[in-house]
Amino acid sequence: MINHTVHTHRSSEEFPYEDHLAHKIARVAVDPVEVPAETREMIINRIIDNAAVSAASVVRRPVTSARAMAAARPVSEGGASVFGLPGTYSAEWAALANGTAVRELDFHDTFLAAEYSHPGDNIPPILAAAQQAGKGGRELIRGLATGYEIQVDLVRGICLHEHKIDHVAHLGPSVAAGIGTLLDLDADTTYQAIGQALHTTTATRQSRKGLISSWKAFAPAFAGKMAIEAVDRAMHGEGAPAPIWEGEDGVIAWLLSGPDHIYTVPLPGEGEEKRGILDTYTKEHSAEYQSQAPIDLARRMGDRFAEQGLDTKDIASIVLHTSHHTHYVIGTGSNDPQKFDPTASRETLDHSIMYIFAVALEDRAWHHERSYAPERANQPATIELWNKISTVEDPEWTRRYHSTDPAEKAFGARAVVTFADGTVVEDELAVADAHPLGARPFAREQYIAKFRTLAEGVVSKEEQDRFLAAAENTESLTDLSELNIELEQDVLNRAPKISGGLF
């Protein structure tokens, strides 16, 4: 990997466009290096993972709305598939629908470093572009390897959240780069698309603050849609604001750490394999990633309490010692009263570690639907316990969060549970059970099991079998519509009725 320094340049400075970060990313995208076997296999895992969480969310209202938007834009030639539907649709709208389905339950893969990310968000738009362009499995895998690589590298080097910029600002450029690889575009065209994609997908973090709405699911899907449109414009010869990151009025100068700050972004050198996806990890539980290890910790402690005859009703307080990110984003450091509101939206509850820990401790389990049900959130004993939980930042957990050593990097917490009689029970967990270094790391078997579990009652057994066979054969596919899943009408009939929009 080559570490590139990135900082603001005045308009009067000599700054050749080949030195712009967007152009350096574009050169990574056009590098003809082969995709290593480990990357190919993990891409297949994540295609299966995305299909799993899409199946689980397919009849939820935001996903139904997004699907209706795409369904209003059918195409007779070319086009892309929409999860659950037959036929083909305008690629950018298919990307919006499928991206919303993937993100709705906050249940797919993650990478955390200087910034947060869900790199699996690259799959819906790059796949839609591949279907639109009539590409095959080999080209798709190459495009996805680039999309993952660029998002992971930007996440390593540039923190967005400290400036309250939403993390999808790294997704637009990664999707544009991935499509550049997919379509075998030249570096200059890809460079323009990356700049346009960043410029049009930069927004504030309010989408993940306070009373969180369905836009949390739509935001990355919208970024993917905009990246497809950016590529299309660039292919028509249209340019982008430049230098988009380093300009005097650019992203770094005014939205991030300012004109005097220097960022370091690692990128593969020429001929270097794209292996970024191998540093990412998926979720066993439908909740924000920083709650994955605490859920497993709560389940373990709940079992321990049951064995020792301790009752959660007797708990006086629970303090979760954790990283800066966990404390301020999903903990009490956020100062969001909505995180203690039993009538809050599902999107808000899955960003409340206090709620999540309380339910996982009481139930000694976590379920993507039952654990968020209004009747579950409104149980008096749960509300009482929930309000006894707080978080504090522990510098050691923050250090481990930012560690570049995979053996040290951690996203967990130490729980200190104090009972009314003074009994104190402590336990900690550094990484989730499903993490590559966890107690039960995910491999192909677990990805397939997750798909089977979430598709049950939604996707027929025959369609499950067909899709899994196609997914495992992705590299050899000539018709990428095989990676879509069609649903029976009785399943789609369970979706809420959506009032019409403009179209």
TrEMBL record:
<dbReference type="InterPro" id="IPR036148">
    <property type="entry name" value="MmgE/PrpD_sf"/>
</dbReference>
<comment type="pathway">
    <text>Carbohydrate metabolism; tricarboxylic acid cycle; isocitrate from oxaloacetate: step 1/2.</text>
</comment>
<dbReference type="InterPro" id="IPR045337">
    <property type="entry name" value="MmgE_PrpD_C"/>
</dbReference>
<keyword id="KW-0816">Tricarboxylic acid cycle</keyword>
<feature type="domain" description="MmgE/PrpD C-terminal">
    <location>
        <begin position="285"/>
        <end position="475"/>
    </location>
</feature>
<dbReference type="GO" id="GO:0047547">
    <property type="term" value="F:2-methylcitrate dehydratase activity"/>
</dbReference>
<dbReference type="GO" id="GO:0019541">
    <property type="term" value="P:propionate metabolic process"/>
</dbReference>
<protein>
    <recommendedName>
        <fullName>Aconitate hydratase</fullName>
        <ecNumber>4.2.1.3</ecNumber>
        <ecNumber>4.2.1.79</ecNumber>
    </recommendedName>
</protein>
<dbReference type="Pfam" id="PF03972">
    <property type="entry name" value="MmgE_PrpD_N"/>
</dbReference>
<dbReference type="Pfam" id="PF19305">
    <property type="entry name" value="MmgE_PrpD_C"/>
</dbReference>
<dbReference type="InterPro" id="IPR042188">
    <property type="entry name" value="MmgE/PrpD_sf_2"/>
</dbReference>
<keyword id="KW-0456">Lyase</keyword>
<dbReference type="GO" id="GO:0006099">
    <property type="term" value="P:tricarboxylic acid cycle"/>
</dbReference>
<comment type="pathway">
    <text>Organic acid metabolism; propanoate degradation.</text>
</comment>
<dbReference type="InterPro" id="IPR045336">
    <property type="entry name" value="MmgE_PrpD_N"/>
</dbReference>
<comment type="similarity">
    <text>Belongs to the PrpD family.</text>
</comment>
<dbReference type="InterPro" id="IPR053420">
    <property type="entry name" value="2-Methylcitrate_Dehydratase"/>
</dbReference>
<dbReference type="InterPro" id="IPR005656">
    <property type="entry name" value="MmgE_PrpD"/>
</dbReference>
<dbReference type="GO" id="GO:0003994">
    <property type="term" value="F:aconitate hydratase activity"/>
</dbReference>
<dbReference type="InterPro" id="IPR042183">
    <property type="entry name" value="MmgE/PrpD_sf_1"/>
</dbReference>
<comment type="subunit">
    <text>Monomer.</text>
</comment>
<feature type="domain" description="MmgE/PrpD N-terminal">
    <location>
        <begin position="20"/>
        <end position="260"/>
    </location>
</feature>
